[in-house]
Design a protein that fits this description.
Radius of gyration: 22 Å
Shape: elongated
Helix content: under 10%
Strand content: over 45%
Structural class: mainly beta
Oligomer: single chain
Number of strands: 14
Number of helices: 1
Length: about 170
C-alpha cells in the first residue's frame, strides 16, 4: 500500500503568513499520485501564502490498485491578523480596538489593522494624528468584506499629549 508522509503541515492549524508543506509518497510499485490544494494541482514544497481556509488532499494508488488518501484542513492569516467569526470578537492594533458584535459578520473573516501613521496623505481611517488601514478578508473564498451587518465599536486609548493642540473638528 502507498504511504503518505506530510511534513510542515498539521490538520486544523492556523498559520500566520505562510506554510510550506513537503509531501512524500512511497510505494515500490506506485502507479499514480494526485495532490490538490483547494481543488487545484499543488507541487510539494511550494509556499502557500493566500489568506484562506485551505484543503490539501493527497491521493496515491499503486499498481495493485491499493489506495491511500490523506486530507488536511488548515488556515492561513496575515501577520497581525485576527479571525472574527459570526459570533463576534475583538481585533486590536496598539491603542485601538475594534469590537465586532454577534452577527456583524456572516462568515469567518480575518481582520488586519495596520498603523500607517506618518505616511504621506493617509486616505484611510485617521484619529488624533494616527492613521489605520483596516482590511477584512472572508476566509472561505478570499474575497474582501466591505459590509457589516451590525455596527462595530471602535475604542481609542490615547494620552492628552496625543491630542494637545488639535482642534476638536480635526480629531
Amino acid at each position: 500500500n502507498p504511504t503518505i508522509n506530510i511534513q510542515g503541515l498539521t490538520d486544523g492549524t492556523i498559520y500566520t503568513g505562510s506554510v510550506t508543506p513537503t509531501i512524500n509518497i512511497n510505494d515500490l510499485n506506485l502507479a499514480s499520485t494526485n495532490i490538490l490544494l483547494d481543488g487545484n494541482t499543488y507541487n510539494s514544497g511550494t509556499p502557500i501564502t493566500n489568506t484562506l481556509h485551505h484543503n490539501l488532499t493527497i491521493n496515491a494508488t499503486d499498481k495493485a490498485g491499493n489506495q491511500a488518501t490523506q486530507e488536511i484542513l488548515f488556515t492561513i492569516i496575515p501577520n497581525g491578523g485576527v479571525i472574527i467569526t459570526d459570533a463576534g470578537g475583538t481585533a486590536n492594533s496598539g491603542s485601538t480596538n475594534l469590537n465586532f458584535p454577534n452577527g456583524a459578520l456572516d462568515e469567518d473573516t480575518v481582520i488586519t489593522m495596520n498603523d500607517i501613521s506618518g505616511t504621506s496623505n493617509p486616505a484611510n481611517f485617521l484619529f488624533a494624528g494616527h492613521a489605520f488601514d483596516i482590511t477584512a478578508v472572508n476566509l472561505h473564498d478570499g474575497s474582501q468584506t466591505n459590509q457589516l451587518n451590525q455596527p462595530v465599536l471602535i475604542t481609542f486609548h490615547y494620552l492628552d499629549s496625543d491630542i494637545a493642540g488639535l482642534e476638536e473638528n480635526t480629531l
